[in-house]
Amino acid sequence: MRWRSSSHLPLLLLLLFIGSVSGLRICSYNVQKFNQKKSTNYRVMHTLTRIVSRCDICLLQDVVDSGGKAVKALLNFLNRGTDRYDEHAYKAVSSKSLGTSPSDMQQYVFIYKSGMVSVTGEYQYQKPQSFVRPPFAVYFNSQKTTEINDFILVPLHSEPSQAVQEIDRLYDVFEEVSKKWNNQNVMFLGDFHAGCAYVTRNDRKNIRLYTNSSFSWLIGDRVDTTVTDNTHCPYDRIVVHGQSFLKAIRPFSGKVYNFGKDLKLSRSKVVEVSDHYPVEVRLKGSGLLLQAPPLLMLLGVSVIVQSFLSSLGSSG
Ligand SMILES: *[C@@H]1O[C@H](CO)[C@@H](O)[C@H](O)[C@H]1NC(C)=O
After folding, report:
1. Which of 183, 214, 216 to mutate to test the pocket of ligand 1 (most atoms within 8 A of CB)?
2. What is the DSSP string of 218-279?
3. Domains of the chain, earliest start first
């Protein structure tokens, strides 16, 4: 039988399309002192909304919002036009204010699309004197849209002068949370200060996340996650544990999101939001048609039936 490319073309396009809309994008952004005052700046909020809404889960760091008003304002921006039962509605889960100095208390905040993932557990790491801002681990379930389905996110905004020790201690956090939830699919993300003067090549031998080959660093050492031209530093990182998590990630999807370039913003508008760029990684979808929304599913089935009928017609 002759290969009739014309009748298969729509099907192929559809599969490509479904393949490309599936999976999860996970982002991490040091949003530099995101407080209530910043949340009243419309321009900042507009840009931040565009950044966060690309992500299915977005970790924000350096959030200074113990009253919750800034995060609430951001959720309002994100959820404009959707009702709160909409599957695309965003929700947030926040740590307490963390820090050792009353004038610099920060929260970790995960903003996530409630129709894509759900939160099944939270855990504040407690070991004294181990971190200035101890990781606040969150256990996510991806509702069967990814290959691994359940995974743990562990954030870190390190204290620059203790970056080597704090990144190394993430291994202890790994042991604790993987035991707690009986799951080794752990992703670390955040502004680790993992470069330039804070973490040198020579320091890596003292960091178990580097020396143990079970951990994969998805944002490379040559990447620049800072906005200013004066620095070229890979401060913000994403690291995953284990082969199954690594396999569930789209190859080469770990990158910096230069939103200034993408959204055509001037440097001053970029800096108004933060002196960092976000980093991100994408998880593969669990299958092709399976996780498509109902309308796409219907379309897919009708295209398949159509191309089947037309191939019957042509061979008869
Ligand atoms: C590396 O980490 C894994 C956890 O997946 C652990 O089982 C293993 O013992 C570690 N290897 C070394 C050399 O410490």
Report:
1. 214
2. -S-TT---BSSTT-----EEEEEESHHHHHTBPTT--EE--HHHHTT--HHHHHHH-SB--E
3. 22-286 (3.60.10.10)
Q: Are strands 98-101 and 90-94 parallel, antiparallel or unpaired?
A: unpaired
The Cα–Cα gap between 215 and 222 comes to 18
Q: What is the pLDDT of residues 283-306, one digit of tens each?
A: 999 865 444 556 666 776 777 777
Compute, in degrees rounded to 10, the torsion defined by CA atoms 73, 75, 80, 82. -150
Query: Which strand (E) or helix (H) includes residue 4?
Result: none
Burial-class residue 20 by CB neighbours within 10 Å (0-12, 13-18, 19+): exposed
In ligand 1, which atom is closest to the CA atom of 184?
Answer: 5
Of all atoms in ligand 1, which is nearest to the CA of residue 208? Answer: 14
User: Six-digit token pair at 222?
Assistant: 């040559």
Averaged over successive runs of 10 residues, the pLDDT of the chain (316 residues) comes to 54 52 89 98 97 97 97 96 72 98 97 96 96 98 91 98 98 98 98 98 97 98 96 98 96 97 96 98 78 63 75 59
